[in-house]
């Protein structure tokens, strides 16, 4: 009996001596398993990063050179984009509103042909010219809010100048350069002297090449640097003609093509050319874009195809038939 009691009251140490100890569970995985797991996690992270980069690249626009293809097509990134091209309605035979109220003109014909040759999906957008390039009387011109803010990809028919060249990029020219000239009332009743404009008030087209800065460069004209109170800007050719015909100004200063290209009425005002006019254009009319936009790269490819095929020359020749009632188009010899 005592022996049983002794056995019943055996100490914990005695029990542990009889029962084999249980294997202690590892607190972690062994080294090979841990390394394999870490490698799997690393590979998974790399796969996720690569997938994210691949998705992002689908939305990155390639601003490199266009990938031209034969037959006028374009399989490069330009093919999938709709290009918006600003165009106005107060540019003689180049841009006007026809009798049915539709926008028309040589520039529309040119845009259609060049974009087709380049394989571009182009759409024209009407807007006011100062939204491409703006200038205030007596101030330097600056980029218009429309083109600067990306409302469209390009503005049509803008000539490259020293000032504009510092702000925008330009395509190859599709119209020739021209000299500036004065415009006065028919018969020149005020005896305006083209060689001396001292004290004269002059009207200019807002944003156009031949502004007061252009007049100031005419070293052969006395008084060519006008004070601010002798400078008047207007945004439309009708207003340009009105200011001259009513005598509100002594003369107007603009492109020497204003009458021939249908901007103003020859029966109301006349042209007076300076003795030695200096053009303020570095090149003829072209497409004008922001410097971060590659539209001109693709446009130039289509334009070159048009020139090489002879279609550009024919297109300009046809302009006299299509738009001759509005004015003339000066063709560029290429």
UniProtKB/TrEMBL annotation:
**Domain (Solute-binding protein family 3/N-terminal): residue spans on this chain:** 89-315
InterPro entries attached to this UniProt entry: Solute-binding_3/MltF_N (IPR001638)
Q: Which UniProt keywords apply?
A: Membrane, Signal, Transmembrane, Transmembrane helix
Q: Does the keyword Nucleus apply?
A: no
Q: Does the keyword Magnesium apply?
A: no
Membrane-traversing stretches: 34-53
> Which PANTHER family does this UniProt record tie to the protein?
AMINO-ACID-BINDING PROTEIN YXEM-RELATED, MEMBRANE-BOUND LYTIC MUREIN TRANSGLYCOSYLASE F
Record's protein name = Uncharacterized protein LOC109478836
Give the organism, scientific name: Branchiostoma belcheri (Amphioxus)
């Amino acid at each position: 009996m005592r022996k049983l009691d002794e056995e019943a009251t055996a100490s914990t140490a005695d029990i542990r001596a009889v029962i084999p100890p249980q294997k202690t569970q590892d607190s972690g995985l062994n080294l090979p398993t841990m390394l394999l797991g870490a490698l799997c996690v690393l590979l998974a992270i790399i796969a996720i990063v690569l997938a994210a980069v691949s998705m992002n690249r689908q939305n990155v626009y390639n601003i490199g050179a266009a990938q031209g293809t034969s037959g006028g097509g374009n399989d490069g990134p330009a093919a999938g984009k709709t290009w918006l091209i600003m165009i106005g309605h107060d540019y003689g035979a180049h841009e006007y509103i026809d009798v049915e109220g539709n926008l028309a003109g040589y520039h529309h014909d040119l845009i259609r042909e060049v974009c087709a040759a380049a394989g571009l999906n182009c759409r024209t957008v009407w807007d006011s010219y100062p939204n491409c390039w703006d200038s205030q009387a007596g101030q330097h011109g600056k980029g218009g809010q429309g083109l600067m803010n990306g409302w469209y990809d390009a503005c049509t028919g803008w000539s490259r100048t020293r000032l504009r060249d510092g702000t925008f990029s330009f395509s190859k020219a599709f119209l020739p350069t021209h000299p500036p000239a004065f415009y006065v009332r028919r018969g020149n009743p005020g005896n305006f002297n083209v060689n001396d404009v001292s004290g004269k008030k002059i009207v200019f087209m807002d944003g156009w090449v031949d502004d007061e800065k252009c007049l100031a460069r005419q070293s052969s004209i006395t008084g060519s640097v006008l004070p601010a109170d002798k400078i008047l800007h207007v945004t439309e050719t009708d207003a340009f003609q009105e200011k001259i015909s009513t005598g509100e100004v002594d003369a107007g200063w603009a492109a020497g093509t204003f009458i021939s290209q249908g901007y103003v009425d020859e029966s109301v005002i006349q042209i007076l050319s300076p003795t030695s006019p200096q053009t303020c254009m570095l090149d003829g009319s072209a497409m004008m874009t922001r410097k971060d936009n590659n539209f001109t790269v693709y446009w130039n490819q289509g334009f070159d195809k048009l020139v090489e095929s002879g279609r550009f020359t024919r297109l300009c020749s046809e302009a006299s038939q299509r738009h001759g009632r509005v004015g003339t188009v000066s063709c560029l010899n290429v």
